[in-house]
Amino acid sequence: MIKLLNANLARLWKNGVFWFCFLVLNVFCIIQKIAIIQDTVEVHYLEEAFWIQAYVIGIILSIFISLFVGAEYEYGTIRNKIISGYDRSDIYLANIFTCIIAGWIMCMGCLISSLFVGVPFLGFFHVELSEILLQGICVFALSAAYTAIYCFFVMVIPNRTVVAVVCILLSFAQLFFGIVIGNRLDETEYYYIPDASLGIGEIDDGSNSKWIRNLDYLEGTERRIYEIVFEVIPGGQSLQLSGMYFIEHASYMEMFSASAAWIILSCGCGLILFRRKDLR
């Protein structure tokens, strides 16, 4: 498998799609950091949206993996490797490891970009460094989980165009599902109804205003179930780790474990199906 991995990495450094995705992700991170720096209304710190790449890493990887690995089917490379005597499991794992490395390089590039742009204007972190490191570990684990999921589809579906559409739609579906769950968790327990009798310019002293309980607010066991789902699904993790949503009981251990489970499940199912697949 080492030979296959070395060959894949050699192809990776010369691959235009990889460098395009790398550039797009880094530009996205830099733009987000500049937007925070330019906001003079509130005081901002370096840790805010520091791992913003988690928000779009699933979309970027869906494009890269479907085109990079899908090309091996299109050009008959996978079939030639099997004919040459390489084990199917080695081929599958070599592709996954290559794409995981590619995703980590993209994330590392964003990390460097965020530090390079953010530190001169926002200073260093105002939270414990261990907190940032835990978030980073979860981001890299999430990147690997996305990779395993997309590689499953790419290695099972031989048509590069079809698999590209499937992976890209899946990436948006995961993010959309995460947003739906996040919005339910973000509901406030009460909402404020101002005094309707107030005229223009009159000050509301609160005497005739009232707070109404929000019937959509989740609580108890139902809320905890939503929180667990939000931490398990990749789209939910993307929103939390990027700083787009804050969940009170968020657990880095649960998110890391969920990513590990996605990796094991996707790789296990993918290996079984790929070993049985009839390549023509």
Question: Overview of this structure, please?
Answer:
The two termini are 23 Å apart. The protein is mainly alpha-helical and 280 residues long. It has one domain. The radius of gyration is 23 Å and the shape is globular. Strands 1-2 form a two-stranded antiparallel ribbon. It contains 11 helices and 2 strands, in the order H-H-H-H-H-H-H-H-E-E-H-H-H. The mean pLDDT is 86.
Q: Portion of residues in helices?
A: 55-70%
Could you give the order of the helices and strands?
HHHHHHHHEEHHH
Widest sheet: strand ordering: 1-2
| Mean residue pLDDT | 86
Short description:
With 280 residues, the chain is an all-alpha fold.
Features:
mainly alpha; 2 strands; two-stranded antiparallel sheet; 280 residues; 11 helices
Any chance you could write out the topology, listing elements then pairs?
Blueprint: H1 2-13, H2 16-38, H3 57-68, H4 70-74, H5 77-83, H6 88-122, H7 129-156, H8 160-185, E1 190-193, E2 210-213, H9 220-232, H10 234-241, H11 252-276
Antiparallel strand pairs: 1-2
Helix pairs in contact: 1-6, 2-3, 2-6, 3-7, 3-8, 6-7, 6-11, 7-10, 7-11, 8-9, 8-10, 9-10
